[in-house]
């Protein structure tokens, strides 16, 4: 378990990285090796991707992974780097607020100082969890961290755009409720149109996190709009697995093995992991 004073210091350092107009850029990792590679590339913090983490454990994304396995993987990530770590915990790996609080306690014990908690529902007719119910879950997360005197950065993910469940007005309504419940920042994946992003920046009373990907504005453009945090989500994991499939197909179909130059290679990766904290 990470020393409580060290955990508090990391949490404060992570919190200070959220500056509107100078966004924290997070190329999301999914295991210890990818976390070390991201840190070595110069990232000021490491955030996990729930999708990539689930895939690495042989599970699908979307609240299908159990807390124990997810936290075990998170522990490996946090132990592999020196920079602050934030954990994507999907809906909290629990059916109720008490369970979300238990997950947060486990996340802190693993050494992470931030969490993403999403409001999407993956079963049933409704795409999003009711506002009041999600607010209770965020409040439980906040209380669990406060009880340990750790200023955990709670990033409330709102899936209105990803799930086609509303626009700016509904997003801002949910954001206000979640911030009032104890969230520190708001994450709106799927919102990439500059006009929309600017409306969200102006309407959210806290740091705004945007998901970057093919076709989205650049980090510089998002910075100009006042965004405070930019995430890659599952993008790096998708790219890594796409390269695995490409090389595997080449080897199986043609018998050749053409790996692009520029990678760290066996020696580089071995050295990187041998020197982990």
UniProtKB/TrEMBL annotation:
InterPro entries: ICL/PEPM, Pyrv/PenolPyrv_kinase-like_dom, Pyrv_kinase-like_dom_sf. Keywords: Lyase, Pyruvate. The keyword Lyase applies. Gene3D superfamilies: Phosphoenolpyruvate-binding domains. Coiled coil: none annotated. It comes from the Bacteria. The keyword Lyase applies. This is Isocitrate lyase/phosphoenolpyruvate mutase family protein. It comes from Streptomyces adustus.
């Amino acid at each position: 378990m990470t020393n409580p004073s060290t955990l508090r210091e990391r949490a404060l350092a992570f919190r200070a990285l959220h500056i509107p107009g100078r966004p924290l850029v997070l190329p999301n990792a999914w295991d210890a090796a990818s976390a070390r590679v991201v840190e070595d590339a110069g990232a000021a913090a490491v955030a996990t991707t729930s999708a990539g983490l689930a895939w690495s454990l042989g599970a699908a994304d979307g609240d299908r992974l159990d807390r124990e396995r997810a936290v075990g993987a998170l522990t490996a990530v946090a132990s592999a780097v020196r920079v602050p770590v934030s954990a994507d915990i999907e809906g909290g790996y629990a059916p109720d607020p008490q369970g979300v609080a238990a997950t947060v306690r486990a996340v802190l014990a693993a050494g992470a100082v931030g969490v993403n908690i999403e409001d999407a529902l993956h079963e049933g007719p409704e795409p999003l969890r009711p506002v009041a119910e999600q607010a209770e879950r965020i409040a439980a997360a906040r209380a669990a961290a406060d009880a340990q005197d750790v200023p955990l950065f709670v990033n409330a993910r709102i899936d209105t755009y990803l799930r086609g469940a509303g626009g700016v007005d509904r997003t801002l309504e949910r954001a206000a409720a979640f911030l009032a419940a104890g969230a520190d920042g708001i994450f709106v994946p799927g919102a990439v149109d500059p006009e929309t992003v600017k409306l969200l920046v102006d309407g959210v009373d806290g740091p705004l996190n945007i998901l970057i990907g093919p076709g989205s504005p650049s980090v510089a453009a998002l910075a100009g709009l006042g965004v405070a945090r930019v995430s890659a989500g599952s993008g790096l994991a998708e790219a890594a697995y796409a390269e695995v499939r490409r090389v595997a197909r080449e080897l199986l179909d043609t018998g050749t093995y053409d790996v692009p130059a520029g990678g760290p290679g066996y020696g580089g990766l071995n050295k990187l992991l041998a020197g982990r904290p």
